[in-house]
# Entry
Amino acid sequence: MEDVIIIGAGPCGLSAAIECQKYGLSALIIEKHNIVHSIYLYPVNMQFFSTAELLQIGDIPFASPNDKPFRHEALVYYRKVAEHYGLRIDTYEEAVSIQKEEDGTFRIKTRRRHGEEREHKARNVVVSSGYFDHPNMLGIPGEESDKVTHYFREAHPYAGMQVAVIGGSNSAVDAAMELERVGAKITVVYRGDDLSGNIKPWVRPLFDSLVTKGRITTRTRSRIVEIKPDHIVVESLDNGSLSLLPNDFVVAMTGFRPDRGLLSAAGIAMSEDMDKPVFNPETMETNVPGLYVAGVVASGRNANEVFIETGRGHGLLIANHIKSKDGGQEEPATIREVPHGSS
# Structure
C-alpha cells in the first residue's frame, strides 16, 4: 500500500512526488511513456519561453549557459533530479482505471507495454498526466494522410519541400523558421487576423523579417479545408474563396488537450463550460476525497492555461493537504473553481 500514487512523470508529477517524499510519504509514479515525455516530444531544437529558474523543481538549481534553456538541457535536468531524489518510477506502464474502495483507499489498474496487467493500491492518488497524446484534430478530409503530422520534431525531412504550417502560436512560428533554414517553401495558414500576441519577443522580429523578404508566406484569416496528395485547399474566411496550393507536407500545430476519460471514470466532476476538473485550488483535491490533480490536466480546454512554472507548485499544496489529513488537523475544504493564472 502506497501513501501516494502519482500518474504521470512530467515535471509537475515529479515535483509532486518530491514534495510527498519530503513529508515522509511513500510515493510511486506510474508513467505511460518515458519520464517528461511531453518535453521529449518537443521539437529537437526547441528553446523554452521560461527561464531555467522557473523550470526548477525540488530545490535543485537548473544550470544552463542560456537565458532560456533548450529541450535537451531540460531532459538532462529532470532525469538528474529524479535520480537525485531516488524517485520510484514505473515507466511504460499505463494507468487504465482508478477505483475508490469502500475503505477509502484506491485501486489503480495498469497495463504495461507488452500487455501485462497489474494492480496498485494507495491511500491517495494524484493525476498529473500530460496532453501530447491527444492533438486537436482539424476534422477535414485528408487529415489522416501520412503527409500530415501534429508533432514537428526537426526540419531535415522537409528540406526543399512545399510545407504548410497550420497555426499562429510559438510552435507554428518556430517550426516555420526552422523549416526555412533547410530550404523548405513554407506557407503558414492561420484563422486569426494576426499571429498570436504571445510569440517569443526575441523571435517575432526574425519571423517578420523572413515574411517581408518573401522566404515565408502567411495566409491569415484562412483555413485549410481539404488535404490532397499533391496540394491543399485553403479557404479565405473573408469571402469564402478557395485556393489550391501545391503541397508535399502539412505540419498542424493546432495544440493538444488533456485526456479527461480517466478522470471522469474515477468520479471526478467536470465543469460544463471549459471541460475542467472540479478541484479546490488551495489543495488540488477534487470532489473525490483523496484524489488530486496536478499540472496541465487541471486546466480547461486551453492546455496553455497551466505551465511548468505554475503547475510545479501543485505538488506542495497536495503534500501539505495529505499530511494535514494524516494528522487530523484540517477540515475538508469547500470545493470551488478558480481559474489558474499563467506565467
In short: DSSP finds eight helices and 15 strands in the chain. Helices lie at 11-22, 37-40, 71-84, 170-181, 204-212, 261-265, 308-311, 314-327. The chain has two domains: 2-133+256-327, 148-252. Residues 148-252 form a domain with the FAD/NAD(P)-binding domain fold (CATH 3.50.50.60).
